[in-house]
Design a protein that fits this description.
By secondary structure, this protein is of the alpha+beta class. The chain has 4 helices and 13 strands. It has one domain: Beta Barrel (M1 Pyruvate Kinase, Domain 3), CATH 2.40.33. β5, α2 and β6 form a beta-alpha-beta unit. The radius of gyration is 15 Å and the shape is globular.
Length: about 180
């Protein structure tokens, strides 16, 4: 039996750096993101996207990544810890990549995140660790690409998030839409 879904680590950085330092807790603000994190905001904060169109909504307020990926990466010879790939929340016991668009994640007592799509891993990952991008963008059986870089979300309800917090998934009504890069 797999463990109940939970938060392993939380991370935030006030600067546009690749990795984010882990914290004992983070404050999450509805419609904004993680307080003090450079990617928080109502409008897009990702630098390349902001240059293209600074008026687009921020669908990437909180980035979540599954800790099980770190086990895969270790087996391939890469030592990666929570926050080092730029994620805000490291989870365990939850298949983030299989969630449909619009799934709600209730975290701890108060926080509600709505999944908006997949993170599209970029070349910066290879700057962090040589050839790591090949581990995060892998071919599937149909000739497509599996993006293992986690999921992005927006904050529907704020609160405090800490390692150890339980995660409950609420699936959206109607047909489930597979995640696409945002």
């Amino acid at each position: 039996m797999s463990p109940s879904p939970r938060v392993v680590a939380v991370a935030a950085s006030a600067h546009h750096e690749f990795s984010k330092p882990t914290r004992e807790q983070v404050t999450v603000v509805a419609g904004h993101g993680i307080e003090g994190d450079t990617h928080a905001g109502e409008l897009v904060q990702h630098l390349s996207r902001k240059r293209t169109d600074p008026t687009q909504p921020n669908l990437r307020q909180v980035h979540l990544m599954h800790a099980e990926l770190f086990d895969e990466l270790r087996a391939a010879g890469y030592d990666v810890a929570p926050g080092e790939l730029g994620e805000n929340v490291t989870t365990a016991g939850l298949d983030l990549l299989a969630l449909p668009r619009g799934a709600r994640l209730r975290i701890g007592d108060d926080v509600v995140l709505r999944v908006t799509g997949l993170r599209n891993p970029c070349q910066q990952i290879n700057t962090f660790r040589d050839r790591l991008l090949k581990q995060l963008l892998v071919p599937d059986a149909d000739g497509g690409v599996v993006r293992k870089g986690g999921v992005m979300s927006v904050v529907e309800q704020g609160g405090v998030m800490r390692p150890g917090d339980a995660i409950t998934v609420e699936l959206p009504d109607g047909p489930h839409e597979a995640l696409a890069p945002v």
